[in-house]
Task: structure prediction
Amino acid sequence: MSQEAQQHDRSGVSEQPLTDQQWQNLQAFADDPRFMEIVEREFPREAAVMKRGGMNRRSFLRLMGASLAMGGLSLTGCAPNPRTEHEVIVPYVRAPEEIIPGRPLYFASSMVLSGYATGVLIETHEGRPTHIEGNPNHPGSLGGGSAMVHASILELYNPMRSTRVLSDGAASTFAAFRTAFDNVMDGLRAGDGSGIAILSETISSPTLLNQLNELRTAYPGVRIHEYEPVSRDNALEGARVAFGGPVDPVYQIDAANVILALDADFLLEMPGSIRYARDFANGRRVREGSTTMNRLFAVESSATVTGTVADHRLAVRPGEIERFALALADALGIEGGQAIDDPTWDAAFFNAVVAELDANRGTSLVIVGEEQPPVVHALVHALNAGLGNAGTTVRYTAPTAPSAANEAAQLDELVGEMSAGNIAALFILGGNPVYNALADIPFAAALPRVPFSVHVSLYNDETSQLCTWHVPATHDIEAWGDARAFDGTVGIIQPPIGALYADSRSAYEMVAMIAGDDRSGYDIVRGYWEGRYGGTDFETYWRRSLNDGVLADSTPPAFAAPLAPGVTEAIAALANTAAPDADTLDIVFRPDPAIYDGRFADNTWLQELPHPLTKISWDTPAALSPATAQELGVSNGDLVDVQYRGRALQVPVWVINGQPDNTITVALGYGRGLASDVEAGLNFNAYAVRTSFAPWFDSGATVTRTGQTYELAQTQKYFETFGTDPVRSGTLAEFVDNPDFAQEEKTEASFLVDEFDYDGYAWGMTIDITSCIGCNACVVACQSENNIPTVGKTEVLQEREMHWIRIDRIEVNDNPNDSAFQPVACVHCENAPCEQVCPVQATVHDHEGLNNMVYNRCIGTRSCAANCPYLVRRFNFFEYVDPASILVEQRNPDVSVRARGVMEKCSYCVQRINEARIASSVENRSIRDGEVLPACASSCPTQAIKFGDINDPNAQVSQEKAQPHNYGLLEELNTKPRTSYLARITNPHPSLLNDEPAAADDEG
Result:
């Protein structure tokens, strides 16, 4: 039963007559279904509120005036507060030296996604992990984060996690599993290991790769395979075509003046995207006196974050990108290029790209996404080599995750062996191939043919249910390990907490068991690095590595990667120069920006997170362009049937600007076979039609209306109420000519009383709209730091979401293809409209300029929300988290958990201000600039958010506010917001300034 259902379950209500029943409080009476029947007859409008699982306080009190007279009621006194129930606590007899009550500890570690590590700092309170931030010492994060990284803390405490060993779906013990394991493995290990197979996700861990290599050496018959649905197969194969072997490109985006992204969402989806976002933003921080900034062209087959922030964007069908790259190389005189006789793209856009790349040889950069075939990757390597970019804006290293072969081919080979009965023992280390295997690789059908199959997984998922044994996996936060970042740097995975569940094991420990080794994960990882350390003091080296989160000198050196002989012929043999059929529809598959390939489908923070572009939560509908939707006769929320190569998918659609015509984009990760509490109703499985023939895109899909609709929860309905343009935007040329372009004429306001003089600290914030990429990292970091609940799709549909930050996607200059992202939270007005209407002074100003909430005073009138022009206040309609749930372990003890009926909103992370105030007081000094970073600012990968004391002229935030393009949102209302914005500045090509290209197919 879901948390929401548990909170409002009325199954235990007595069947006694209504007049004989007693209630501990009025709410219990209101939840009685017999009372609901009375209310529905007498007050049908108010009954609708209660039927949604509860009712708001105002409605309840209004109803009680009439309802108490309905029958002889016996009301008891107040019930015990569930938050103050008696719980048994056990104090430390001898506390660990490093633990100081009330003071958090931070542990450097890494989080791994598809084999690539991101360095993190894990915040703990008395040994309990509560929050994750980026590690400033790690090259993959530099202190920034992503929505998935920050939400990983919730995954640790997820109530849906598997807690015990299962045998054929029934509860068992690890001891029973070990007995069965030994009975099978003793015989198989007596020979060369034939019959043993291991299937893992993509591996970059040096320790785990060494374990597997040693296992293969000891038992040559062992089969080892890797598979992930979102892999780097195309990139690695493209490198083989271009260089004769696999290499990884590492982009130096901060060194590039001009960037061309070919179906590459390098700011959000690619390995290293957190670092790439920082480097990209560093090239666009326009300040007074600036005359240059980088320029980004995006050519893409689906609307993405990178395309949204690009200076120019061309929407084309996915197959056209290969032809675009061929024509581009030909126009620049670079190996592999071919003339295209029938281009369908905008000629002015193409000519501008050619001119810019040619004029910036050595300081330009071409990037291609994994979705494009190997030939395009090879072409891009040739383009960067021909433009002189190798060694300047791109360098090459050995593969971070050196998979031996194409992962889809590896899975297909394994399935063949399983079907033939050649696998006696299969160990699946993570992943969920029963759910996400390519549709033409029958993994689920072959799995029952393996007599002994073990799935080591966080969840009892689709794969676990078809295996003979399921072993709970440890989370990255509770197990030792290591992994390489996008540039090859090794990070140690250091757990700040022991395994929550005794039966759980890591992949390292399971591989060691297969090899007959019972060492712990710590001994395995430390032993590997100790054996390779060439110095004399490994203990110091090891402790330094744990402290920094990275192994010193572990970044592999870059090397020259000359193009292989015959690359032109190789590209020509693979190239497809035929124009797409105008009468066909392309289908495109993309990982979801929140739940990725489906692995985070049980993470409620990510499920409720609005999509960066559509602002839809709890679902990701298929995307269509306005023209294609009109041609198909569909609109937002219509349910359609998608037919592709004899396979079918039913999915709702959403019309979005920036999507190319004749293309439907489907997100991976939904439609799980096991409908958990979180996933119930999300029945749109794109894997059902995704094949090895075309894992990313193909032509020949058909879309037909079903006549049905599907309700989608879109959160962005706010900015229309502003009355003025919330985003002020200009070009670099306009800024150079008139730095004050964003300023509007202001009328000096008058006040009935003198304004308050903030002579101490005065906290304020700036947000650079040019740097913001709408990645949602700040939204999840804020949720984690401030104990913000999720409410579920039903409540989001009622516009009751609780996020303190929303990121609006706003169309600029009345151009549907020109959008900007604008984060909006409480702006802490000095002349706050909310404070003037609260009847109990629950929202008040302090002497440092913070608009504070006094939760204990709030009586829930919601007057403040009604009077807030920024629409940033949130009301607790329900008690959203069960106090008995393990989820309460994630809560930040420095932040009050709000009760039902209480208003809440952004506090500027006042708990962090107070922490810095205490530390500075102990040291008898002032708070240093940068010492206080709200969760949003510390998580932002582009450093778009600055925070500090605006009374300090040397503070970063003061310098930002002194910029000529700094402005306040709705400042004409005289609210005097403490949060201000730096106007969006773009760098369009002069030849395209008034001629933004349309989608390719719009050209006819």
